[in-house]
Specification:
Blueprint lengths: L9 H6 L7 E4 L3 E5 L7 E7 L6 H7 L2 H17 L11 E4 L15 E5 L13
Antiparallel strand pairs: 1-2, 2-3, 3-5, 4-5
This protein binds adenosine monophosphate (AMP).
Length: about 130
């Protein structure tokens, strides 16, 4: 698998502090901030600090420590955003777009956490 990471992508700039964001959480290996164009009352982005393009790249190349930190941070972000159904929340959706067919705009792995309202169909209608 060959991935080339673009160090000038917008999330790399956020991680370097070159452009602002609304930060929600930070751990040793992960970072959480608000999506600039929210699709629902809660719309967070969870990213690893390391240079990974998308989920399969991360799964193959990241350390176990980075992976466990990232997975736990996704869960904690949902809990702290108040959408985790095991707590006070009413549920959420996690999405991680990859590549052209996944309509990934920013080539740095990110998981969207979207909630705070009843979400619609999982994907837009289209041809199979
Ligand atoms: P994706 O299509 O999964 O790559 O989604 C990229 C997401 O990044 C979109 O939901 C954008 O609204 C969001 N986004 C782009 N630029 C910024 C930024 N500067 N700060 C926060 N979110 C951003």
């Amino acid at each position: 698998m060959a991935y080339e990471y673009d160090r000038q992508n917008v999330f790399a700039k956020i991680l370097r502090g070159e452009i602002p964001c609304t930060k929600r959480m930070e751990t040793e290996h992960s970072f959480v901030f608000e999506d600039i164009a929210p699709k629902a009352p809660v719309h967070l982005l969870v990213i690893p600090k390391g240079p990974y393009v998308c989920f399969d790249h991360f799964a193959e190349a990241a350390s176990d420590e980075e992976i466990s930190d990232f997975v736990r941070t996704v869960g904690r972000a949902a809990v702290e955003a108040g959408v985790a159904p095991g707590g006070v929340g009413n549920g959420y959706r996690m999405i991680s777009n990859a590549g052209p067919d996944g309509v990934q705009e920013v080539p740095h792995l990110h998981v969207h956490i979207i909630g705070g309202r009843r979400l619609g169909a999982m994907t837009a209608p289209g041809k199979n």
